Structure formats: structure tokens, C-alpha cells
């Protein structure tokens, strides 16, 4: 009997009701706060104290306030919601040029005859796309090509999907500048967007190596003995490989160039000019116009595609707003500091290194119920950021723990719609995918804990 997982919006509304119930169970309390050297407000460890609930904070007001918290949550998250819409529109216009398809097709076909190189470069391109632009659903059209290449090299669908999913999972897990996870989590935590990218970029190397070696070993095993394939006993239709490659033109390369220039400008502006989401959104909109001109897309067509791309992220925007409303209920119920204190009490005794690992575990567990990266950031980071202050952990480390929990876990949890859609297209049962991936996940979780410990030791901020 299969278990139907509720829609993420249903889960978030359930969390909203749960947050309301907690306001009747937990006593109100607060921490003292101070402004640190970076101008960021943070809680003072050991300063928690119980407080009296205000006379106007009645049971009826809290119940009606739960519904008012939804529009309040959207208002509080308006900057990131509008940024998400602009990003969605910009990416849609970029995809319309055919540049993404051409680059991926070139990589996959260029190295298609060399199995190890195909795995290496295929995973690299998927990792880079997710790390920089937060791509995931955009990879779905490449499933048939990866399957055809896998069959053509006498491998199996698990290898092709491993190239895709392991690649994008690593890209999300150690994302350098992903606007849907890194920027959201850092914004909620009061950090400069995209700060600390250098350490995440360094971490990409060992995590990427783990992923590549894992897929290499599996491919080598079934090359030697095809009966070792996890799907050997299944009747999976073999797709015909597309004989017409997508040409990589000079125009595509120009679009690649201006996209990298835009990303570099954003990194420079954030580091040197204290740019924020408004400036970042402006750069992406300007990039959209430049790309449309280079690709000779008619203004009406570009505008229509931009609107379609923004519309595709409406669900993401709604999840962000609903997730933020959970924080509103907890704040107005005056219990968010009570929750932080309850979690901090056992973690404080563990020391900062184990506390960071504990945050990783909490985020991994939460991701089972909230596979949306941005939604999870808005639910958990309002708690995890001040919790980090209490446990002697930099908030940047807390954000890294969130990234690990979200990105890595997303390629194994059955609540991730993108993953389940890819597996369905490939005809791979979930239990076979779990068997393939679980040994890698053990290694990733161990390396993730070590990376967090190092981050604590070096004062990563």
C-alpha cells in the first residue's frame, strides 16, 4: 500500500496550525539581544527568561492571528518573493535562446564515447548549473538523452540518472551562489547574500569527487557484469538516441559569456557596494534584456516567455510566503525564543562542532517534510540562526548546515517531486534508486560533518 505524501502547501499549513497549538502549550519567553561588530543583532547566551503574556495576546486573538499571519508572512518575504519572480523570468528567457540545451548537449555528446569522461563532465555541468543558478526542474528534458547515452555505452539507466541527480544534489548541497537556497537562507539569517562563497567552492571539490567515484564504481561493476545492474531484471524501454544534436553556436557562447559577466558583477557588487536583493534583481532583469537582444528574440516573445518563467515559480513564491507565516505565528505568540532555548540547552553541552552537526541532522530530517529549499529556509533559519549564536556557532555555519540538509537529502527523499519525476521518466523504482544512492549518502553525511567541524574551527563567517 503506497502512502500519498501531501502537497508541500498542505504540510506548511499543517505546520502553521502546529505553531498555533504550540502558543497554547509553551510558555512565552525571550532572550536579550545585542548588536555585534558586524552590525547584526544576535541573542545573548544564557539570557533567556520567561515573560508574562500580554493582555492583548488572548487565545481568540492568536487563533484569528493565524490567518492574518499568512498575508503578514508574504509582506515580510516580499523582497525574496519578487526576486524569485525575476529570476524565474530571466531563466526562462535564457532557456528560450537554446543556450542551456546546446551547452549540455555538447558536453554529453562530446564525451559520450568515453564513459568515465561522460560521467565526469556530465556531473560537472549539472553541479555547476545547480550551484550557480539553482537549476533542477530544467534538467528534466535531458533525461531521455542521458538514458540513450547510457544504453549506447552498454550501461544502464541508473548511471544516466546518477550523472544527473548526484550532480545536481552536490550542486545544491555546496551551492556557491544559488539564489533559491543560499540567498534566501542568508537573508533570513541576517547575513550578506552570497557571502562565504569561497569555502563552499572549496568544498565542492571533495563532495564532487565522492559523487563521481561512486557513479564510476557502479558503472565499472556493470560493465564487467551486466547482471549486477540494479534494474537488470526489469523491462525498461530503451529510448532511441536523438540523431540531431543541438548546435552550440557563437551566439550561444556570447550568451554564456554575458551570463558569467552578470554573475561576476553581482559578486563584486555584494562584496564592494553592499548590494542586496534589489540590485541583484535589477542585474538579472538587465541580463534578460541583453540576452534577448543577442538571441534576436522579439520583445513581445521575450516578454511572454519572461511572464511564463515567473509564473512557473508561483508555487515557490507561495511556499516562501506560507513558510514565513509560521515564523510570524511563533513570534506573535512570543514562543520562538522558548523553542530556541529548548533546542539550545542540549546542544550547548555538546560544544560548537557537535552543535553544528546536530543542525545538519535537524535540517536533513526537516527536508523530508519540506523538500522546497526556500520554504525550508524560511521555516528553519529563524530558529537556527539565533540558535547558532547561543551555541557559539557562526550563522554562516548554520546556513551551511541547512544547505547540506536540503541539497544532499533532496536526491534520496521520496517527497522531492523533481526526483520522483526523473525516476518515473527513467523507469527506475524508488527502492532500486535508494539502494544505489544510500552508500554515497553515508559518505556525504560523514564528509558533511567534517566540513562543518572545520568551518567551526576556522570561524567561517
What is the beta-strand fraction? under 5%
Mean pLDDT: 83
Helix residue percentage: 55-70%
Distance between the termini: 47 Å
Structural class estimated from helices and strands: mainly alpha
Report the radius of gyration as a whole number of Å: 23 Å
DSSP summary: helix tally:
19
Strand order of the largest sheet: 1-4
Low-confidence stretches: none
How many domains make up the coordinates?
A: 1
Largest sheet: 2 strands, antiparallel
Task: State the assembly state of the protein chains.
Answer: single chain
Dominant shape: globular
H/E element order: HEEEEHHHHHHHHHHHHHHHHHH
How many strands in all? Answer: 4
In short:
By secondary structure, the chain is mainly alpha-helical. The protein is built from 19 helices and four strands.
Secondary structure layout plus pairing:
Blueprint: H1 8-25, E1 29-30, E2 33-35, E3 41-43, E4 49-50, H2 59-76, H3 78-96, H4 99-110, H5 115-133, H6 143-152, H7 157-173, H8 182-188, H9 197-224, H10 250-272, H11 277-294, H12 299-312, H13 314-332, H14 336-348, H15 352-369, H16 373-390, H17 395-407, H18 417-426, H19 430-457
Antiparallel strand pairs: 1-4, 2-3
Helix pairs in contact: 1-2, 1-13, 2-13, 3-11, 3-12, 3-13, 4-5, 4-10, 5-7, 5-9, 6-7, 7-9, 7-17, 7-18, 9-19, 10-11, 13-16, 14-16, 15-16, 15-17, 15-19, 16-17, 17-19
